[in-house]
Amino acid sequence: MEERDSDQDNKHNDDDHDDYEAVDIERLVRKEGRSNASSFLEREPLLRSRKNNTSQIAIVGANVYPIESLDYEIVENDLFKQDWRSRKKIQIFQYVVLKWTLACLIGLSTGLVAFFNNLAVENIAGFKLLMTSNLMLENRYIMAFVTFAGWNVALATCAAVLCAYIAPAAAGSGIPEVKAYLNGVDAHSILAPSTLFVKIFGSIFGVAAGFVVGKEGPMVHTGACIANLLGQGGSRKYHLTWKWLRYFKNDRDRRDLITCGAAAGVAAAFRAPVGGVLFALEEAASWWRSALLWRTFFTTAVVAVVLRSLMVFCQSGKCGLFGQGGLIMFDINSAVASYTAPDLVAVILLGIIGGIFGSLYNYLVDKVLRIYSIINERGPAYKVLLVISISLLTSCCAYGLPWFTGCVPCPAGLEEQCPTVGRSGNYKNFQCQPGHYNDLASLFLNTNDDAIRNLFSSRDAHEFHLSSLSLFFGAMFCLGIITYGIAIPSGLFIPVILAGASYGRVVGSILGSISDLDIGLFALLGAASFLGGTMRMTVSLCVILLELTNNLLMLPLVMLVLLISKTVADSFNKGVYDQIVKMKGLPYLEAHAEPYMRQLVAGDVVSGPLITFSGVEKVGNILHYLETTGHHGFPVIDEPPFTAAPELCGLVLRSHLLVLLKGKRFTKQKVLSGSDLLRRFHAYDFAKAGSGKGLKLEDLDIKQEEMDMYVDLHPITNTSPYTVIETMSLAKAAVLFREVGLRHLCVVPKTPGRPPIVGILTRHDFMAEHILGLYPDMKPQKHV
């Protein structure tokens, strides 16, 4: 039974680990062993041959790293209580003010990064497209393609090298990792400064390289990284130990700040402050309260003010090729304020199409990511080669497909020039004669933001041919799938909006004879339906789209199409971010308990006997178990002569034990010495170090004569850990564990005369693979 317990808690690595190393998958497979439940092979994460997705490893970005749980619970030990009793009103006021100051700094920093991101993308991509356009006007088509593809490959290589060699955790959108962190799962470097650096510049290079990716998902990750950096609580190494900052050396306050950062990322990407708050509430955060809502809203408001100020500055022409574009804002002015029955039928049809396409998109992303994992296992060089291959394919599609479409005469009475001369616009000349434009080139040979603006255009229902829109939809659908998962920062919002707006415009053209809705509105509803079908968000997406388009008249239609698309897609599979969390092996706890958990009680899945310590324990015993186990929490039992009978004193953390042993306040006799420890130590001595750079077992220097001495654990023992009786329903225990944000849940016996603790429930014990491995005859059911 001891072996089972060790496996249960091995995933709780030291909070004090500093430098992880990338782990070779084959070695991990040999270490972890084969899965006990063969029926789960199809649903295994990308680590194909390990025990289950609750082990101590997961895929972060594109590499495999150790993971651990976060301590969101308040450790109410004697040191904590002494610290709170000693705090004065001015210190509490300083803490509150600093929280709001950090929220403001998060919004300010995220807004500045978003502006820099857009400014760089618009100028780099604009310069590339301008060179290509000028060469085509000179009829140097081959040279134009070489220039276009060469720029794309060079930019893609820069992004890939950054991701593959400097910060593999920066690959992908980062939203699944942020979701997992806010759920209580920490992994190597997901919010590190190196990840922030690569996320910013990798996203710039990737989007400017013409990939079918967005910068919106990476902006969420960027905002979370900025919040984590600001909320580290100071650094002794760099002598940044301002007294106030020590209050933030805990996972609870960092969680609040990172939630603000994620909301700020959405607000900066879409210029949607309210949408950012709702995104954090609906999709990112697992824990919420009214005070956090207020602080998050303040953060996104700061982002909106910063972006607005900088955009006004750029309208004077001081930002190069960056003008009013880039920071997405699509004005759709539809004069139709009422909706007839045929209009509602068209909207329902779009919702059904979006749900079907969205579930298919998620299914194919799942399969492609599994294939890419095999390539990524081979090393960084193969990741870079894969990125270059996708870049060449994307360049060939963007430059080659417009040759298969004809030229369209320029509409009469246009205010703008047609064909467009320069970087952006709706009417790309491409290979056409004067007075004509290539409608497909107007979508492909533009930045993604300008392509969306063109699709949402309402000026001419026949601006784009059905064949061009169908071809563009197919290309965006396929390129979006094969691009997500390569070693660059990549978001899913833009590919989904592009594909959805394309088929929305197709449906609008076909149903134009029976519906009075605007063609641009059809494009927006198509984008909304595809977003709902892939991401399964409703309220936040609805508000984001309304803030993007600046038209509240579309609210009922957007609500309807999102509800329908989500309902249809949910009947096939999960949302794309939930699927990716599962594939990466991140032990994410859902908001609801699975139905089969109602058939079990807490005592059915917990194991024992646990490794426990006495209230006054021998130093050698503590050191032995710290060396031989990976447990993070140990029950502390008071025994005679200190109590009449054995009783549970509480729970002590590994990181606190390391600090206590480092201090060497030992006694030769087994006596209580808590008062001396309270004078020697302060609560901030046991605070969690930033970025996992805390005390390690190797830092201890315990001499042989000290091994037989004793140390009093009472001052650092959490005397009020969350406990459940062993007969409590596992479903109830799972909801409690997730809602409170626990790392350990003590299970106590129902009847007297037994040891005071039965075992400890951890995140591992609530995972389906673990439970169904213990009870293979129990079949999972779909949650209703």
UniProtKB/TrEMBL annotation:
It comes from the Eukaryota. GO terms for cellular component: chloride channel complex; plant-type vacuole membrane. PROSITE patterns: CBS (PS51371). It is found in: Membrane. The keyword Transmembrane helix applies. Belongs to the chloride channel (TC 2.A.49) family. InterPro entries: CBS_dom, CBS_dom_sf, Cl-channel/antiporter, Cl-channel_core, Cl_channel_pln, ClC. Keywords: CBS domain, Chloride, Chloride channel, Ion channel, Ion transport, Membrane, Repeat, Transmembrane, Transmembrane helix, Transport, Voltage-gated channel. Residues 1-15 have a biased composition (Basic and acidic residues). This is Chloride channel protein. The keyword Hydrolase does not apply. Residues 716-778 form the CBS domain. It comes from Daucus carota subsp. sativus. Residues 1-21 are annotated as: Disordered.
